[in-house]
Amino acid sequence: MQKTCSFRASGLVQGVFFRQSTQQQAELLGITGWVRNRPDGSVEGQATGEEKMLETLRDWLTRGPAAATVLKLEWEEVKLQRFDGFGIR
């Protein structure tokens, strides 16, 4: 069953290829959506996919790429959204 989740990662998540790495992980998992930097230094996005794949992405987001330090991950299910691919905004 497809679901959409909204997420926001805080910590050292900008300037460490977090968005590009998130896009790669999402594409490997068959997840669509988007990711972008926020002015406050966090990274936010939305992801649509099968529940098990979303759980895998959530687990990855708690760590991020090697150079990142994720201090907090906010994750919540939202109304189902449809996206074409997974983009960086």
What report would you give on this structure?
29% of the residues are buried. The protein has a five-stranded mixed beta sheet. The chain contains two helices and five strands, in the order E-H-E-E-H-E-E. The protein is of the alpha+beta class and 89 residues long. Helix content is 26%, strand content 43%. It has a single domain (2-78), classed as Alpha-Beta Plaits (2-Layer Sandwich). Helix 1 runs antiparallel to helix 2 (51-61).
Secondary structure layout plus pairing:
Elements: E1 2-12, H1 18-29, E2 32-37, E3 43-50, H2 51-61, E4 69-78, E5 86-88
Parallel strand pairs: 2-5
Antiparallel strand pairs: 1-3, 1-4, 2-3
Features:
Alpha-Beta Plaits, globular, about 45% strand, 5-stranded mixed sheet, 2 helices
Number of domains: 1
Q: What is the helical fraction, as a range of percent?
A: 25-40%
Give me the strand/helix succession. Answer: EHEEHEE
Could you say what the CATH topology is called? Alpha-Beta Plaits
Q: Globular, elongated, flat, extended or rod-shaped: what is the shape? A: globular
CATH class: Alpha Beta
- Based on helices, strands and strand pairing, what is the structural class? alpha+beta
Q: Overall mean pLDDT score?
A: 98
Question: Spans of 5+ residues with little confidence (pLDDT < 50)?
Answer: none
